[in-house]
């Protein structure tokens, strides 16, 4: 008896991967990642009227925020953590330092400024987002923020 293997076209393979990715429950994945990282039962979640979610949890010496704007492919996940209040000492030196770090040490995240605070932030659309990518985004932001907040505050904080 002959043994025939089923061969899939590249379109069928892509369709299968897309189906696997679109069936992911991002809320559940985010909550599992936060459960593995949070400390002192610090995780909190709120729901926005537009159908989004906002989580906050403590990781080391920082608070990390995760925002999911909704569940469609066009919606976004944003992860951020404040590391230094502004104004700061020697802001030109600080900005140069942050830009250099953006180039060499922040991976998929970056330093930025939100409401007079230096933050570590990462954002992307939910289209084709895997559970591993969700975990990586949250972990990278939390780790980079926790690894750099005290040194930045020590060198550049006004207080």
UniProtKB/TrEMBL annotation:
What InterPro entries does this protein map onto?
Dev_and_cell_death_domain, Put_sensory_transdc_reg_YbjN
* Gene3D superfamilies per the UniProt record, alphabetical: 3.30.1460.10
The highest taxon in the source lineage is Bacteria
Q: Which Pfam families match?
A: YbjN
Q: Which SUPFAM superfamilies match?
A: Type III secretory system chaperone-like
**Domain DCD: start-end pairs:** 12-143
Q: What protein name is recorded for this chain?
A: YbjN domain-containing protein
Q: Which source organism does the UniProt entry give?
A: Anabaena subtropica FACHB-260
């Amino acid at each position: 008896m002959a043994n025939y293997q089923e061969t899939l076209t590249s379109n069928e393979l892509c369709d299968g991967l897309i189906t696997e990715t679109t069936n992911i429950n991002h809320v559940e994945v985010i909550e599992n990642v936060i459960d593995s990282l949070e400390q002192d039962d610090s995780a909190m979640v709120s729901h926005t009227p537009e159908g989004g979610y906002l989580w906050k949890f403590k990781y080391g010496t920082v608070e990390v925020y995760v925002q999911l704007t909704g569940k469609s492919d066009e919606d976004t996940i944003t992860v951020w953590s404040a590391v230094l209040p502004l104004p700061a000492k020697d802001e030109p030196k600080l900005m140069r330092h942050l830009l250099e770090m953006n180039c060499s040490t922040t991976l998929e995240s970056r330093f930025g400024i939100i409401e007079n605070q230096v933050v570590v932030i990462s954002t992307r659309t939910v289209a084709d987002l895997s559970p591993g990518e969700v975990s990586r985004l949250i972990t990278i932001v939390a780790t980079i923020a926790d690894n750099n907040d005290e040194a930045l505050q020590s060198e550049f904080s006004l207080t």
